Amino acid sequence: MVSVVGVTLAEIRRHVESLACDDGTYYVVCGRTGDRPVPAAGKRFASRATARSAARATEQYRTALRRYDPQSPYYDLIVCQTTGATTPAARSERRPSGAAADTLSDPVLRDANPGPGRRRLVEFCHSVAAAVFEALSDAGHDAVETAVMDAYFDLAESVVDPDDLCLCLLESMAETLDARLTPVELADLLADAATRIAPAEADDDPVSATFAHLVERGLLGEFTLSPWSVDLDGGTRSVAVRISDYALSPRRGRLPVLPIVFDLCRRRPEWPLSSLRVVDADDAWRITLVLAREAEPETPASVPIQSRR
């Protein structure tokens, strides 16, 4: 179980959530990059003192992450206050001009000028990994959690680039989850993990929204969707998605789809995912998703790669 001074990731996150409120004007942000790291991301706080407590808890959370991932980003956390309206439109992820700020800690950044694309990719990978680790811990899957950590530490000895290492973390995690959990256990785990980060906005087409989000986060280059196919008798609907420049690599004939399934779970579609199929399309991947109202949800972390016919 990942912990700092006997406190688990899930307990720290719940503590930050208990400090937050809907109409607060204070928030926690990295003073240099503008990122709002988990678990304070998207949270507002009623007072500067409360926000500083949340910032200290966020630092503790980041320290906990580095127990299993030494490459987890450091942040120069500060507390900011909005100076204008607190409507959703005014609640920008960026530090507002003229905002009051308190510095919490000295900046500790590996790269003085990290690009926004790199930051988004790295933080997305770590956010997904952290949510899964929390869910594993709360579900009592200690052996699975240890297996993921051991595999990752082995990779850390040979993979030098921190960006590549965060992708390797998701790849090894997907492989271990599939190997050590039953389909039902995995479905429950990912459904739980998806609730541990800020919920996505409602969308009429959650599949399209998921792939657009992955493009924004740097996990893939672009995607195209086929028209939806609806089987009224079977109560299913399906769509084929062609993706290019996918950041995760195949392992033992399987493609890791953990970030795809995770984000789709986060959007809680009215028609849950019932199957996912991947075909090697030379310079791209063709992913067919079938959604069904009645069928048991299927949430794989990786899927066998099928040859194009």
What does this 3D model show about the protein?
The chain is α+β, with helices and mostly antiparallel strands and 309 residues long. The protein folds into three domains: 3-103, no CATH class; 116-194, no CATH class; 206-307, Alpha-Beta Plaits. Helices cover 39% and strands 19% of the residues. It has eight helices and twelve strands. The protein has helices spanning 9-19, 48-68, 116-139, 142-156, 162-180, 183-194, 206-216, 258-266, and strands at residues 3-4, 7-8, 26-30, 77-81, 100-103, 222-225, 229-231, 236-244, 254-256, 273-280, 285-292, 302-307. Strands 6, 7, 8, 9, 10, 11 and 12 form a seven-stranded mixed β-sheet that branches. Strands 3-4-5 form a three-stranded antiparallel β-sheet, with helices on one face. Helix 1 (9-19) packs antiparallel against helix 2 and helix 3 crosses helix 6. It is globular, with a radius of gyration of 20 Å. The relative contact order is 0.11.
Can you summarize this structure?
This protein has 309 residues and is of the alpha+beta class.
Q: Give the domain tally.
A: 3
Number of strands: 12
Shape type = globular
CA(first)-CA(last) distance: 45 Å
CATH architecture grouping of the largest domain: 2-Layer Sandwich
Q: Under the CATH scheme, which class of the largest domain?
A: Alpha Beta
Rg on CA atoms, Å: 20 Å
Which structural class do the helices and strands define? alpha+beta
Q: What would the CATH topology of the largest domain be?
A: Alpha-Beta Plaits
How much of the residues is beta strand, in percent? 15-25%
Q: Which oligomeric state applies?
A: single chain
Rounded average pLDDT: 81
Low-confidence stretches: 1-6, 85-114
Instruction: Please give the largest β-sheet.
Output: 7 strands, mixed
Number of helices: 8
* Helix/strand order: EEHEHEEHHHHHEEEEHEEE
Roughly how much helix do the residues carry, as a percent range? 25-40%
